[in-house]
Amino acid sequence: MKNYNEKRNFKKTGEPEDIPSKKKNKEPIFVIQKHDATNLHYDFRLEIDNTLKSWSVPKGPSTDPSVKRMAIPTEDHPIAYADFEGVIPQGEYGGGTVMIWDKGKIESNKKDEDGKIISLEDSFKAGSIEVILHGKKLQGGFNLVEMKGGNMKGNWLLMKQDDAEADARRNPVSTQNKSVVSGRTLKQIEKEEKNKE
Ligand code: MN
Questions:
Q1: Residue 105: helix, strand or coil by DSSP?
Q2: In degrees rounded to 5, what are phi and psi of residue 88?
Q3: pLDDT by residue for the chain (197 residues), tens digit each?
Q4: Neighbours of ion ligand 1 (CB under 5 A)
Q5: How remote is the CA of residue 106 from the centroid of ligand 1, in Å?
Q6: CA of 51 to the centre of ligand 1 (A)
Q7: Does pTM surpass 0.85?
C-alpha cells in the first residue's frame, strides 16, 4: 500500500504533509472525520505510536452496543491531520469535503489478567483495542477488533462498549451532522471553501 505522502499532491490539496517529527500530544487524541468522497464515510483515527492509525467506517460509529460497524484499515495519517477540515479537490486522492465530526482525548481501558492497563500501542499490535473516547458526541468505551479469519480477514469491527454512555436510542451519525470545531454542515464547508478560491 502506498503511504500517506505518496498518495497526495501537496501542490493541489490543502491537507497537511506528513513531516517526520517527534512531537506528539501529551495526551493522545482521536478524531472522526466525515468524508463526502466517492462514497460518504467516516474516518476513525486514533493517536497511536506518534501517528494517527486510521480506519474507514462506511456507516459511522453507533452508540448502540449491539451494533457492529465495519472498519476498514487505511494508511497512517500525520497527527496534524486531526485539524484538517476543508475540501480536497476533485481528481485528487480522496477528493471531496472533510468535516471534523468529533474529536477529543482518549485512554486505553483494556486490562491484562492482573488488571493492569494495556497500552494502545500493544493493543493495536494485538488487533484488539478498548478505548475510552472523551469527545463531544461520543463518550465512553469503544472496542475495535481485527478479524483474524474468514473472508473479512484484515478488516476490523467497531462497537460501543455496554457502559453508562451506551444508548441504543441515540443515532448521532444522523442527528448530529455538524462540525465540532466550526459548527458547519458539509454543504456549508463546501460553499465557504469555494468562496475562498
Ligand atoms: Mn476518507
A1: strand
A2: -90, 125
A3: 789 999 999 999 999 999 877 666 779 999 999 999 999 999 999 999 999 999 999 999 999 999 999 999 999 999 999 999 999 999 999 999 999 999 999 999 999 999 999 999 999 999 999 999 999 999 999 999 999 998 899 999 999 999 999 999 999 999 999 999 999 999 999 999 888 76
A4: 35, 43
A5: 21
A6: 16
A7: yes
